[in-house]
Design brief:
Elements: H1 2-11, H2 15-23, E1 33-38, E2 41-54, H3 66-75, E3 82-94, E4 97-101, H4 113-119, E5 129-131, H5 137-140, E6 156-160, H6 161-167, H7 174-180, E7 184-187, E8 192-194, E9 197-201, E10 210-216, E11 219-223, H8 233-236, H9 248-265, E12 269-270, E13 279-285, E14 288-293
Parallel strand pairs: 4-5, 5-6, 6-7, 11-12
Antiparallel strand pairs: 1-2, 2-3, 3-4, 8-9, 9-10, 10-11, 12-13, 13-14
Length: 295
């Protein structure tokens, strides 16, 4: 298991590209922008792309194998050879602030984030802050443009201190690290990162993986980052190992604890890999969970 984890960690920053290659070229995802009000914030779910992950035992159910995963998918009426995941981002606007949480895949796929921002009426130059849940490529790829320039040149880019340190140790990410470095401001997980937005430590996925709790006028929304990936497998079997996690055991424990809290508190969440727009609630069902999307 240790060798499997090391192998996955060495490739997870390029996971989406590899998965797309394994499953064949994926059609472009059309832009999308769905907006709702949360207190004084206008929140917009931004479409970026779709990632098709092979059911090969390396990612979902890394400790139980593809046959067990296939059974869960079959029971849900889904194809069993792969798991389709959205790759999306979030925009929070209040006053003159335009805050983007995560940036999708970027120009190498390419993703549709720029088009989705345009649908929301925001240009990249108007983005004031970019908040990163963690530094995997499907969350930070959109920080640079096709010609390797900063995509949000007027924004402060906030990344947790542990993840920024970890990112700088990844040689395959040296270019993006170099481009964004002048704009990066780090924080400790659990700290406030903007007025009305607090980082929430959710361990196991990367060294500094966080969610972001957005609060205004007694209304809250938690961007859960990569606490969960599949709205089917991650909820039906939260205790199965997720191959993308840096610490499989901590990831399992963290996932179960967070899902239990979300369900008991009826906490509205944004899950960037759940079916677009990824906004809704976690519902407890016996020893597992289900997804209830916001209508």
């Amino acid at each position: 298991m240790k060798s499997l984890r090391i192998s996955i960690l060495m490739t997870c920053l390029a996971t989406v590209q590899a998965s797309a290659a394994d499953m064949g070229p994926q059609p472009p995802t059309p832009p999308g922008a769905e907006t709702f009000t949360l207190g004084e914030f206008r929140i917009t779910a931004l479409r970026d792309s779709v990632n098709v992950v092979p059911n090969d035992g390396s990612v979902f159910g890394a400790d139980v194998g593809p046959n067990a995963v296939a059974e869960v998918l079959k029971k849900a009426g889904q194809k069993t050879e792969a798991i389709e995941l959205s790759v999306d981002a979030l925009l929070a606007r209040r006053g003159g602030e335009a805050i983007v949480i995560d940036t999708g895949l970027g120009p190498s796929i390419p993703g549709s984030l720029a088009g989705s921002l345009s649908l929301a009426g925001v240009s990249p130059d108007e983005v004031t802050t970019v908040l990163i849940t963690h530094v995997h490529s499907d969350h930070i790829g959109g920080l640079i443009t096709q010609d390797t320039q900063s995509a949000f040149k007027h924004a402060v880019i906030k990344i947790s201190e542990p993840d920024w340190k970890w990112l700088q140790q990844q040689p395959e990410m040296a270019e993006i690290t170099r481009v964004i470095a002048p704009q990066v401001k780090t924080f400790n997980p659990g700290e406030d990162v903007a007025t009305g937005i607090k980082s929430v430590r959710i361990p196991g996925h990367t060294p500094g993986h966080v969610g972001y709790m957005i609060s205004s006028k007694d209304q809250t929304l938690l961007d859960v980052g990569d606490t969960v990936h599949s709205s089917i497998v991650s909820l039906a079997k939260p205790d199965w190992a997720m191959g993308y996690d840096t610490d499989l055991a901590v990831g399992r424990t963290s996932r179960r604890e967070v899902l239990t809290q979300l369900a008991s508190r009826h906490q509205l969440i944004f899950a960037p890999h759940f079916p677009y727009p990824g906004v809704g609630w976690i519902v407890s069902r016996d020893n597992h969970f289900e997804w209830s999307p916001k209508k």
